[in-house]
Amino acid sequence: MWEMYDALLDGIDTDDRIQFVCAGESWVLLKAENGTMGVAAVQEGRNGAPLCSESFAGMPLPEAAALVKSWDFEKASLGLAAINSIYNCNERFPDCGEADAFLRYRDRAKGKKVGVVGRFPYLEKRLNPICQLYVLERNPGAEDYPDSACEYLLPEMDLVFITGCTVSNKTLPRLLQLSQNAFTVLTGPSTPMSERMFEFGVDSLCGFCVTDEENAQLAAQNRQGIVTCGRMVCWEKSTVTGKIG
Q: What is the 3-state secondary structure (H, E, C) of the chain?
């Protein structure tokens, strides 16, 4: 089950270190000494002391990235932010077209069974009128299914959107196994934009690049939305030529 994580970590070849970490209730923002930044949603599930941002300054990026495998989910979130500081660089994605996953794949969703792992904003308005929508959520609302229903529902789906948070909470490998009959989209600011993800059943990556450092820090500190502090980007497996990896 660690193969996907090892593939992401194997792709990190740098001696760069962390310049600073800004960790709040909702987001952890990391900046490397070379200027690249990565962000990830903070996952609840601490089994140690709260994250102390100062203690990570100067840590080598590969060491920080390896924390993604930690069962302390807050440390794993920091590890994912370190990974994203490597892969989610704005310069790598000059023109992606429509990068909002739910708009990009709206036509594909028409008349189909669509599963969404994670409660994203405005899902019903975007998708419910045109498809059979099933939203799976760890803390389900009135219109949601509990996340345990994924074992029963995802194998029946035609299209599945999965939040990038599932990387840090370790549920993604199983979710991709269950969704192998569907077109799968990993989406959200936590999504690592690495082609290695295509080796494990992901068909499309819709992630995020930080471009506004000052406001991203404010968003991390004040539990604000992060997507206005950068740009969403998209990369499809079908566009990768040659050997993946």
A: CCHHHHHHHHCCCCCCEEEEEEECCCEEEEEECCCCEEEEECCCCCCCCCCCHHHHCCCEHHHHHHHHHCCCHHHHHHHHHHHHHHHCCHHHCCCCCCCCHHHHCHHHHCCCEEEEECCCCCHHHHHCCCCEEEEEECCCCCCCEEHHHHHHHHHHCCEEEEECHHHHCCCHHHHHHHCCCCEEEEECCCCCCCHHHHHHCCCEEEEEEECCHHHHHHHHHHCCCCHHHEEEEEEEHHHCCCCCC
